[in-house]
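Record 1 of the preview.
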Amino acid sequence: MGAYILRRLLLMIPTIFGIMAISFAIVQFAPGGPVERVIAQLSGQGGDALDRISGGSNDFGQSSLDSGSINSKYRGAQGLDPQFIAELEKQFGFDKPPLERFVNMLWDYLRFDFGRSYFRDISVIELIKEKMPVSISLGLWMTFLSYMISIPLGIHKAIRDGSRFDTWTSAVIIIGYAIPSFLFAIMLVVLFAGGSFFDWFPLRGLTSPDFDQLSLWGKIKDYLWHMTLPITAMVLSSFATTTLLTKNSFLEEIRKQYVTTARAKGLTENQILYGHVFRNAMLIVIAGFPGAFISAFFTGSFLIETIFSLDGLGLLGYQSIINRDYPVVFANLYIMSLLGLIIALLSDLTYTWIDPRIDFERRDV
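->
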């Protein structure tokens, strides 16, 4: 097992390199960029962008030169001092060749130095840490509740396969899976957050403004009060896959010969189900838990965060892409890719922990 883990760890290096290289190359050919964004804001909003980039200094503002005499590679740069454009490129690091910028970025990322945001006066790692509590809350609650609902429901559906219970629960699950979570979120807002009917739940934030003054029990209630609607919206459309996977796994195990033998020995159905079938049937379900959490943690909450005004990593990633804040974009990509590869390894190791008969040493990576 040690050799298998070592091979997987070594394979992470070219995988991360490939992901970052492809993404970096795409960015080079994508229209727009931080320099163009500042130029556009200067053209449309005066010095707002310039204040954020150069600390309010207008030393490199618009030139009195004829705009037609400046041949710039940036759209909308006519009429701006070329020295100002050069300063912008230097501040963003675009005065260096792409290959040098890519190598420098990889070297910094190996040391977990992600630099500073282009358009926010904060380091990238601090910005990510600031948004992480929201994403952790959504990811943990969604994964926990999804499994707590899916596994018992899947087991009961397997036991009652073909019954009315199995039929109508399957219909509900499929409908819930087909409807996007953001539509559930909008419906919940309309019904319970002051949209048109009841005003029972808050519509903004993870906690109330007076959260710090509340007692411990008051903080718990306030937190759960704020999380109820977003978590409900996410869970309703998230447990269909796990439920059906649990049902099919149990059905497959129940039909095997060892179950017939156990019944012949006089064991009760509960002894057979939870003493023999459960461990084998839950192998694939439990082993997928780390990946399910990471998926919910990073990718499952952007629209929910937007609808309920929860400032988490999903919303941060989207805004960074829109604003061409490349340090934040690449840092998010690097962290997610690295965690995804580690979680994939942990999922494989979970298989061996649940079922020692599985031996990855005998398989090719």
